[in-house]
Model the fold of this input.
Amino acid sequence: MEKTYLDKIQIHKDNKLAALYPSTKLLIVILYTVCTFVIGTIHVTKYGLSLLLIPLFFVIPILCAASGALKKCIKALKAVTFIAVIILVVQTFLVPGGSLVTKIGFLTIYEKGLKTAISLSFMIMNIAGIFVWFFQTTENKEVSRALETSGMSHKAVYVFTSTLQMIEILGKNSRTIMNAQKARGVETEGNMIVRAKAFFPSLVPLILGAVISSEERVLTLEARGFSVDAKKTHVFNLEKSGIEKPVTVAAVFLTFLVIAGRVVLWIL
Done:
């Protein structure tokens, strides 16, 4: 039997963890961030390094794999890791202060630089990583529907979701323009100067395209009665996976254990 339009636009996820209600996922993100900051205050070795942040990061790929979204998350996690590695290297070798840890040729590693590098880089990896999991397992229309259900104005919801989509839309349009330039014989690959010469002229059609598309979007919204002061109807229904309560209890309990353990270590 052929599906109707209403059936096609619904989201049905087989994975219960990926199908969690967006507010439950957001709670997990917040609690994981809290745990990251708490664990980051635990210093080990004589240099006071936040080494426990390193094994904590491996929770992210495990969570992504359990949600059935590991392949989708890998690309974003690689970008996060790349940025974190740059911060780690720069902070380690360029920030002086404290006692000398070791010297590798003309490069010196000081206590303050190493401590800051590990804390900052893995703090970024953990916090950015949990947001990667959230956005890779949650579609924008799920977020907007959950926000509107929570009582937020539909106008504020639209501004929020359109902001999330803007980077992706501009990225796709930019690639389309660059491919068109390449088809016309314009050199788009090479060193930074060559790439800049090809990129900056593409900004004009990119910006104009964004303006035109925004105008079309406004007309579409008005045709659907977006600004009408009346009760809105929705064709997309957001479903719950059914495991929101046990997942919430488990997340809160683990966060409590982390905080309690940190307090015990502080007292001792």
About this structure: Residues 154-183 form the longest helix (30 residues). Residues 46 and 111 are 10 Å apart (CA to CA).
